[in-house]
Every structure is written in structure tokens, then in C-alpha cells.
């Protein structure tokens, strides 16, 4: 996030592929964010959509919308609150609603590296894509570590790892890491290489525990 700039800013990133060798296989990815930074708070909206499909099989079909509010309390402590809604057909998730609030702590804030640690207790409600439309309600401790490395004037590396156990069942947890390399081609166009890894210790019956993806695409900043 460009937290040093007052006003409205955003970015859009898209990538895709198409393959036809008797069976058509296509993939599409779109990620956008819009944020407003004032002198006292930051409001951030993120949307993401991923699909990978052949004529008779869905390899990936997921989307989410995330709204976050940040307000600095002290020099290295920021209050955070968020709401999120998502779906994921491969994980048999019809929809999941999340909301929570907590704090982010700035561990390192140098010109070459920034490191933040966040703790956000959250409420979760989800409905599954099964015969009985099973629903779950849980409270989870969402903890994350975010690192930003300024590799050069034109290249930056970002990585964020989330760990989210149920508050009274720590053996039931989700873990997610996203690492991204961004290389500027022009002032507003950049190359993105993103790797994600997800693990769910107790997924719905028939859904995978592990998810790994590697994506390459272009982004437009404004």
C-alpha cells in the first residue's frame, strides 16, 4: 500500500492463457485494489477473481472481495478492521464471510526493508457446496507477517504469511503465503511474478488440503 501518499490510488493486474488441443483449456486472473489515504486513516478495497477450466473440469474457480480500515494509534502500532466475502468451488466453499479487528505492529521500517506483524481475532461464517449445504461458525486468531524488500529502483519483493487457527482448536488451522516479485517496465506498467501456497488442516470432505500456484502477468498502476 502507498501509505505515504494522501488521496486516491489503485492498481489493476490481469493475466490469462488459452490452449486448444482437441480440449479447450483456459485460465484467467484479475486482481484490483482501490485505496483512499487521509492524514488520519486508510481505507482499502481489494477484489480478486481466478478461474482455470477445461470443457468438463474446473481446476480453479474462486473470488473474494476485501474491505480494510487502518488507523495509526502510535508510531509503530496501527488499528485494523476488515470485512471479507469469498467463494471457492474447488474447496467446496459456496461462500465464506469474515470480519474482525485487531492491531498491526511495525517491526522494521527501513528504506530497504519493511516488516509488519498483525493479530486480528475474527468471526467466520461459511456454507459448503455439499448435499446438505453444511454451515460452520467459528472464531479464529488471524496472525500474519508481512515483509517488503526494495531490491532496486525498479524491483520490489513482497511476501505475507497468514496463520489462522480456531481459538479453542489450534490443531484446526489454515495457513496461506503469497510472495510476489514486481519489476517496473515503465512508470505505470510492471511485470508481476506471484507464488501462493495454502494449507487447510481440516478441509471439507473431498476438498484438497494443499494449494500451490505460480502466476506471471502485467499490472497497471494509477
Describe what is shown at a glance.
The chain is an all-beta fold and 222 residues long.
Tell me the series of helices and strands, N- to C-terminal: EEEEEEEEEEEE
Classify the secondary structure makeup into a structural class: mainly beta
Side by side, the strands of the main sheet go 1-2-3-4-5-6-7-8-9-10-11-12
Total count of strands: 12
What's the total helix number? 0
Provide the residue-averaged pLDDT: 90
Low-confidence stretches: none
Strand content: over 45%
- Integer-rounded radius of gyration: 18 Å
Q: Which percent range fits the helix content? A: under 10%
**Inertia-based shape:** globular
Amino-to-carboxy terminus distance = 13 Å
- Main sheet summary: 12 strands, antiparallel, barrel
Task: Give a description of the structure.
This protein has about 220 residues and is mainly β. The chain has no helices and twelve strands. It has a twelve-stranded antiparallel beta barrel with strand order 1-2-3-4-5-6-7-8-9-10-11-12. It is globular and about 50 Å long. The model has no long low-confidence stretch (mean pLDDT about 90).
Amino acid at each position: 500500500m502507498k501509505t505515504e501518499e494522501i488521496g486516491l490510488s489503485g492498481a489493476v493486474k490481469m493475466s490469462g492463457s488459452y490452449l486448444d488441443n482437441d480440449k479447450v483449456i483456459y485460465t484467467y486472473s484479475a486482481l484490483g485494489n482501490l485505496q483512499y489515504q487521509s492524514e488520519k486513516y486508510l481505507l482499502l478495497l481489494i477484489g480478486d477473481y481466478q478461474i482455470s477450466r477445461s470443457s468438463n473440469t474446473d481446476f480453479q474457480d474462486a473470488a473474494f472481495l476485501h474491505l480494510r480500515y487502518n488507523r495509526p494509534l502510535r508510531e509503530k502500532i496501527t488499528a485494523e478492521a476488515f470485512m471479507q466475502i469469498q467463494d471457492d468451488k474447488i474447496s467446496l466453499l459456496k461462500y465464506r464471510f469474515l470480519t474482525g479487528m485487531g492491531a498491526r505492529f511495525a517491526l522494521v521500517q527501513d528504506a530497504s526493508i519493511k516488516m509488519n506483524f498483525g493479530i486480528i481475532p475474527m468471526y467466520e461464517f461459511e456454507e459448503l457446496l455439499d448435499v446438505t449445504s453444511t454451515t460452520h461458525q467459528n472464531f479464529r486468531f488471524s496472525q500474519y507477517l508481512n515483509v517488503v524488500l526494495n531490491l532496486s529502483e525498479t524491483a520490489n519483493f513482497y511476501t505475507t504469511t497468514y496463520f489462522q487457527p480456531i481459538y479453542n482448536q489450534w490443531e484446526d488451522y489454515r495457513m496461506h503465503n503469497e510472495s510476489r516479485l514486481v519489476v517496473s517496465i515503465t512508470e505505470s506498467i510492471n511485470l508481476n511474478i506471484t507464488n501462493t501456497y495454502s494449507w487447510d488442516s481440516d478441509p471439507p470432505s473431498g476438498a484438497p488440503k494443499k494449494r500451490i500456484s505460480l502466476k506471471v502477468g502485467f499490472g497497471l498502476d494509477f
